[in-house]
Design brief:
Shape: elongated
Radius of gyration: 16 Å
Oligomer: single chain
Largest sheet: none
Order of helices and strands: HHHH
Number of strands: 0
Distance between the termini: 44 Å
Number of helices: 4
């Protein structure tokens, strides 16, 4: 199902979907070659991150997510 969705996103030429492609590529963390702005693997990776984030946001309140961020930040700032 995800592969079919990625193919549809890649093939659609509308401005709205072009913005979605850029969003998914950013979420993927993939570096694109200068002349290649989108790849199917980057779209698939970005879609996975997006769906995971969406599920996470439905499972935790913004307050809980902020608390987790602060805990992680405090761990990173401790002298190890």
């Amino acid at each position: 199902m995800a592969c079919v969705t990625v193919w549809a996103i890649a093939a659609d030429e509308s401005q709205e979907v072009a913005e979605l492609r850029g969003f998914l590529v950013k979420l993927s963390g993939r570096q694109m070659r200068h002349q290649q702005t989108v790849t199917h693997p980057a779209l698939l990776a970005g879609l996975w991150v997006f769906l995971s984030l969406f599920e996470l946001m439905q499972s935790y309140s913004p307050h809980e997510l902020e608390r987790f961020r602060k805990i992680a930040q405090n761990l990173c700032s401790k002298d190890v």
